[in-house]
């Protein structure tokens, strides 16, 4: 490639190869991850908020108003926030990709030295990694993929994933949040509704925690208890604080 | 190593080398990330909740009760949830590490084939990657590091980081949440307090969004406006929903 540099242009075929990259696909694992993110906070915070307000002697009407407003706000904050965050990551990836692409074209010896450095970290000697470095130099597309993954640790994000992720997280938060609020929609006295809310929410947290453990490869029973514990601690804190502020 | 396997034991020096791994250190980048996570939701949700309740004609007293209860619950959910999540990741890493360790000792040819597969993805031919594979086979510790990173994409988490991360996120959420609630503590009529709350929160969101963009390498002005936009949309939704439920 050094003669191409001195002539000042890159073989268009090589350039178009550089522009082709395999995309990371949206997997079931990512949908599960989004649901976990949404339901974890969705089941916990609205429940705790509602319990706290009940302890402060609010009516079910106020509790529902606060709860639903919080669920809406939380779903938007997590969903829209997650979407913009994913878009930023995608923009970041594109910027890093262009930069590596330029470096491969303009300073291939530096890039080759970086490959050598990566392999040398694993005790591989120059005479051992030289054939790999040369192999990569002959395939600019693969070389670019290698640098993105092994030097920068970045994978090409799927542009549709950002939007899909946002919806998954937001909907999960909403579904999670509605569970503890349901009793307040049927029981006008908040101090009565809170008991039903606590009962169904603890059960929901245990089930969700178990499923979370199962899907993430962690002990499901332990996960169930930890998840329920977070709900218990959060609601106890909310209850205590609300009682102090509004006895 | 094949003779060691047939003799049924591993050289203790090799085994102890297998037990040594460089830890991923807690960096300023991670503290920034935790602060961003906490403040993003902390500035947005309590503000929106308070604005929604103000629109539903609640008193500042109820707004503060709900707001502070939500901040407590949110901080615990995010903090404790983040901590347990990081602990699960650490446990997952340890399990995967042990499994790779066993595979390297018991089925080194399979593991060597996996290294070959990884390099072959980049168009590297067998005669080109063979010296690298052999180099790794001679260094079990480096080989293990290589498999953890390049096959599984995992890095050894710092055990202290889980706790530190949890505190950072929780504190950030609390600090973020108190900003929009402050006016309600001084202005008894919520419908008046909400104006002050909106003003200081929008400014806080713009500043935070700008800083976020700066630290994450994205356009700061764009980031400032996006962050403020999320706050505006979340509070509009909360306000609208609260007015519908509790006119």
TrEMBL record, chains A, B:
Localization of this protein: Vacuole membrane
Topological category with respect to the lipid bilayer: Multi-pass membrane protein
Transmembrane segments: 166-187, 193-211, 223-245
Highest taxon in the source lineage: Eukaryota
Pfam family, one: VIT1
CDD domains per the UniProt record, alphabetical: CCC1
Keywords carried by this UniProt record: Ion transport, Iron, Iron transport, Membrane, Metal-binding, Transmembrane, Transmembrane helix, Transport, Vacuole
InterPro entries named in the record: Ccc1_fam
Reactions the enzyme catalyzes: Fe(2+)(in) = Fe(2+)(out)
Domain description: The cytoplasmic metal binding domain (MBD) is located between transmembrane 2 (TM2) and transmembrane 3 (TM3).
Family of this protein: Belongs to the CCC1 family.
Function: Vacuolar Fe(2+) uptake transporter.
Description of how the protein assembles with itself and partners: Homodimer.
Name the UniProt record assigns to this protein: Vacuolar iron transporter
Organism from which the protein derives: Hibiscus sabdariffa
């Amino acid at each position: 490639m050094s003669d191409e540099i001195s002539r000042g242009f890159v073989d268009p075929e090589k350039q178009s190869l550089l522009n082709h990259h395999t995309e990371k696909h949206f997997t079931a694992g990512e949908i599960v991850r989004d649901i976990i993110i949404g339901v974890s906070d969705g089941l916990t915070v609205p429940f705790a908020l509602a319990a706290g307000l009940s302890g402060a002697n609010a009516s079910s009407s106020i509790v529902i108003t606060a709860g639903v407003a919080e669920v809406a706000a939380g779903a938007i904050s997590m969903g829209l926030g997650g979407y913009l965050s994913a878009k930023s990551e995608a923009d970041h990836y594109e910027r890093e990709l262009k930069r590596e692409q330029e470096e491969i074209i303009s300073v291939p010896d530096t890039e080759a030295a970086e490959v050598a450095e990566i392999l040398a970290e694993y005790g591989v000697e120059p005479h051992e990694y030289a054939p790999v470095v040369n192999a990569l130099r002959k395939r600019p597309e693969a070389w670019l993929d290698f640098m993105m993954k092994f030097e920068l640790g970045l994978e090409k994000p799927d542009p549709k994933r950002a939007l899909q992720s946002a919806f998954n997280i937001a909907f999960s938060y909403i579904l999670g949040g509605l569970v503890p609020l349901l009793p307040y929609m049927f029981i006008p006295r908040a101090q009565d509704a809170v008991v039903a809310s606590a009962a169904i929410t603890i059960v929901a947290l245990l089930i969700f925690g178990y499923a979370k453990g199962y899907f993430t490869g962690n002990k499901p029973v332990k996960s169930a208890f930890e998840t329920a514990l977070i709900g218990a601690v959060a609601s106890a804190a909310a209850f205590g604080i609300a009682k102090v502020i509004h006895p």
